[in-house]
């Protein structure tokens, strides 16, 4: 039981009342329960969840999450060796709001546990985290770039604490148990969902609440007492509704009317304007050639999650030898495109990358080509190479991303893989350009790359890959003429 907490949720208080009453007090219990169960939450409450009815409002990415009992029902992340475990809820369109949750660290010896606001992807967010150093840190997170906006010491981070983040305009503030611990100015996207996060830690979460703020204001400090209003009944936020251009008259599995395909000649080509929209509720199989005519395809129903869950299905699944061209993938994009064998992607555009833009799964002789197009908003990888063969990425533009290409570092079946990168413009990278496994003989040939917004970048990172599922070990960067094949003159920084 959490006796240290200032108050209890309705379900928790209800149990205590019933347990402490005999038959003689039944009439009084009825009166007390009626008073407790009458909701008095503000009508402006955006979201609340005490996990008494499960965790159906949340989408998971990483870690081992489950609802367990700890005095009442709580949401637990039990995998302390998970590098980044997170769950998300709410709306991507939320702007100025206050989010709070109760957090108890189970194992904070090596990492952190916190609550996130304005999460626009799995690793882009503001978060207030209880850390192994005995602090509460207010952080701006964008991929591997973490900026600490402020911090303060916290006594016993492993005890239950109420952690809150307020976001209003560009102002971000963090509170622990009602006291402000940090504030600062952020530059991340001004909208996004809420999240619960751990990194190399295990923790429990409870009593999540979200309330709106007006731009430039801060919510009043939340202080609970034994007579305070109960936690509002949780309501799942509805999925965002798409209301753009009419859906073209095409069946999901049919080849749309062909249009002339412009020959991709430059990575600086302007992004195309969508000619229509198509909601996709089940993966579209492609064999032969599919010319999308610059229609925007986006996930709906079973494919409607915009989380980074690695178990998601793709929007398109290409058979061996298939060609996909002139397609725009809108948000949510689920797991993008899967290539079962050799495939060609021509002028394919990802407006906001889901888990990955495309995953290549062919055999050792497979040849994949990405020619033209572009991708934005990849919190981690843009292109994931799980199979064998050679991937060529040319005349491509990528913006706001973690890494452009990754040869799978811990797939259960490993291959020698090759990637060729030619004429690519990379804007605002958060991590690196290419990651390969030198111990498996991977090669990366790179030329004509322009990096915008950074004065330096790890162009080619070498890892020692494995087939055990463990995180691969980084062993070096830079050209070596063997695995990372390029010259410094092949890279331009602007």
Q: Give the helix tally.
A: 2
Low-confidence stretches: 1-43, 216-266
- In percent terms, what proportion of residues is strand? over 45%
Characterize the biggest β-sheet: 17 strands, mixed
- From the 3D structure, determine the CATH topology of the largest domain: Pectate Lyase C-like
Radius of gyration: 25 Å
Which superfamily, in CATH terms, is the homologous superfamily of the largest domain?
Answer: Single-stranded right-handed beta-helix, Pectin lyase-like
> How many domain units?
2
Main location: secreted
Cofactor: Ca(2+)
Pfam families: Pectate_lyase
Protein name: pectate lyase
Helices and strands, with pairings:
Blueprint (H helix, E strand, L loop, with lengths): L9 H10 L6 H12 L9 E3 L9 E3 L3 E6 L1 E6 L7 E5 L7 E11 L4 E10 L2 E8 L3 E8 L2 E9 L7 E8 L2 E6 L2 E7 L7 E7 L2 E11 L64 E4 L3 E3 L2 E11 L16 E3 L3 E8 L7 E3 L3 E8 L7 E3 L6 E5 L2 E12 L3 E19 L9 E21 L5 E10 L5 E7 L8 E5 L6 E2 L5 E3 L1
Parallel strand pairs: 16-18, 17-19, 18-20, 19-21, 20-22, 21-23, 22-24, 22-25, 23-25, 24-26, 25-26, 26-27, 27-28, 27-29, 28-31, 28-32
Antiparallel strand pairs: 1-15, 2-5, 3-4, 4-15, 5-14, 6-11, 6-15, 7-8, 7-14, 8-9, 9-10, 11-12, 12-13, 29-30
